[in-house]
Amino acid sequence: MFQLTGKVALVTGGNGGIGLAMARGLARAGATVVISGRDAGKSAAAVAALAAEGLQAQAIEADVTDEAAVSRLFDAVLQRHGSLDMLVNNAGTSVRKQPQDLSLAEWHTVIDTNLTSAFLCARAAYAPMRQAGAGKIINIGSMLSILGAPYASAYGASKGGVVQLTRSLATAWAADNIQVNAVLPGWIDTALTRKAREQVPGLYERVLGRTPAARWGEPADLAGIAVFLASSGSDFITGTAIPVDGGYSIA
Ligand code: NDP
Predict the structure, then answer these.
(1) Which residues pair with 8 in a beta bridge?
(2) Is the pTM of this model over 0.85?
């Protein structure tokens, strides 16, 4: 049920952090994985790390905020692999500032990277998935999809939007046998949150104190949900937003 052999997955932001852990999970389940990001060096290192474990992966550089680049990315995936079965919209960024201090350019950077990119990539994935008669799209939200934070107006708006985008896509494409779900990671130890820990005093301890599992998450904690939502085991699940947070959101 959770076997992905012969399937092709594209993971945006797959060259590090949560994206790489999800890519690793999908590859371990048998999928051929394409990881995408802007930093060619990081992507090459990620591919090498996966190859060292005997896992198949390729990297294609793309800025997912750029409509033409997204189009080229999907053309390249289809040209190389002939199909696309799974898309993980994981690329993301954050600018931590109080709303009154946030510039319009910073707002657009966050919204474009976290939300518009998911729309662009999902839209590009639709035709090949529809043609194949099946597809799985996994969008990465956040605790800030459902909770507020003073430094996260753009980030929270983008991640709340990801959940609503997920529901819209799920209803639009359910009849095409394309399932679209969101994953809401709790606090996971990555480059993104290491920066947050520097910028938000006491964040590490506050998260630890509030998380029933009494630890920060590791990127590998997200691998299982990626495999599940990419597999036939989740064929009747669509439009959901599943927290993977050690209980943070219910405490
Ligand atoms: P990282 O900073 O480690 O990863 C972010 C990834 O996004 C990188 O691979 C980066 O690659 C890619 N990326 C950023 N901007 C672009 C762009 N314009 N085009 C293409 N790729 C881009 O952070 P995380 O692993 O923590 O974050 C992954 C996702 O998980 C994000 O959506 C984040 O919001 C979300 N998340 C993370 C949480 C956490 O606690 N860590 C909690 C909740 C959600 P490159 O630099 O090569 O472009």
Answers:
(1) 32
(2) yes
Nearest CA to ligand 1 atom 36: 142
Mutation pick for ligand 1 pocket among 192, 211, 215 (CB with most ligand atoms within 8 Å): 192
Catalytic residue among 126, 155, 204, 248: 155
CA angle 196, 114, 163 (to 5 degrees): 105
Q: Which amino acid is at 157?
A: A
pLDDT digits (tens, 9 = 90+) for 124-180: 999 999 999 999 999 999 999 999 999 999 999 999 999 999 999 999 999 999 999
* Residue ranges of domains in the chain: 8-242
Give the distance (Å) from ligand 1 centre to CA of residue 20.
Answer: 10
* Gap between the Cα atoms of 233 and 230, Å rounded: 8
Cβ–ligand 1 distance for 45 under 6 Å, the answer no
The fold adopted by the segment(s) 8-242 is Rossmann fold (3.40.50)
Which alpha helices (H) appear in 96-211, and where do they start and end?
104-111, 117-132, 153-173, 191-199, 203-210
